[in-house]
Amino acid sequence: MERKNVLIAVDSSENSKRAVSYVGEMLGGSPGVRICLLYVEKPPNRDRFATGEAWRQAAQAKEQRLRSFLGEARTLLRELGIPDDGITEEYVVSCSSPLHESTDYCTPGTSIAQEILRVQEKGGYGTIVIGRRGVSRTEEFLFGSVSSKVVNHARNCTVWVVS
Fold first, then answer.
1. Could you tell me if 111 and 149 are in contact, meaning their C-beta atoms sit under 8 angstroms apart?
2. Residue-wise over 91-112: b if at least 16 C-beta within 10 A, else e?
3. Are the C-beta atoms of residues 66 and 13 closer than 8 Å to each other?
4. Dist CA 80 CA 86 (whole Å)
5. How many other β-carbons are positioned within 10 Å of the β-carbon of residue 4?
6. pLDDT in tens, 21-30
7. Strand, helix or coil at 100?
8. Which domains does the chain have, with CATH numbers?
9. pTM for this one?
10. pLDDT in tens, 124-152
């Protein structure tokens, strides 16, 4: 496991942006750094839309926002000294997405944390970086959080939680 291989799990939130910025500030200019920006898709809840077309449009708008965020994150990392060829993006699509019927792999949507850990292990990333979502202690206790699940289940790697 290479410690210079860093996986940043993002969701387009301000905490994700801070996590990207933190990694760039800490590792910018360091030789041999490889960074992957990871997004695990969670499509909008189908039950909130009157028609399949409205759901598809909402999913499409959300994906466009996320892909735009990934581009902005890449630009920020470059500005902070990470070479472009050291940055990759991985967008893990949901099996329940109305936009991606045929893919090599899709996430069943059971756990974003499990998907982050799957990608970490598959890619040999020595560090996972994740922004802490702004949930109360009660919400975190009742529902858990992606960051706490990653921290509790990660093995053979370092986890940075940025808030």
1. yes
2. ebbbebbbebeeeeebbeeebb
3. no
4. 12
5. 15
6. 999 999 999 9
7. coil
8. 2-162 (3.40.50.620)
9. 0.89
10. 999 999 997 655 555 445 446 888 899 99
